[in-house]
Design brief:
Strand order of the largest sheet: 4-3-6-7
Number of strands: 7
Number of helices: 1
Oligomer: single chain
Distance between the termini: 23 Å
Shape: globular
Radius of gyration: 13 Å
Structural class: mainly beta
Length: about 90
């Protein structure tokens, strides 16, 4: 399903934001790469309500944060585009 959103971000003029692997609910990994697709502007990553960073999508409308350290138990990962109000999130248990 993520591939569909990659093409949508690149070919559809409608503003969109997608968090890859959002259907994943559990992991044993302490470190996680957060990947998203966005054609609506600068994206902010939040982990458990704390801002991790902000970046602009690259030439193919992709944002990547590598090596995000998850806490034991429940984690809430959110991507936001403040300019447009778009938000997407996932809950991941480690």
């Amino acid at each position: 399903k993520d591939a569909y959103y990659f093409y949508k971000a690149n070919w559809n003029p409608e503003p969109m934001l997608h968090l890859c692997s959002a259907r994943m609910t559990e992991t044993t990994n302490a470190v996680f790469d957060v990947i998203g697709f966005c054609n609506a502007g600068t994206v902010t990553l939040e982990l458990n309500g704390t801002k991790v960073g902000t970046q602009a999508p690259d030439a193919v409308k992709t944002v990547v944060w590598r090596g995000i350290r998850l806490v034991p138990g429940a984690n809430r990962i959110s991507l936001r585009v403040p300019k447009s109000g778009l938000v997407t999130e996932m809950r991941l248990v480690r």
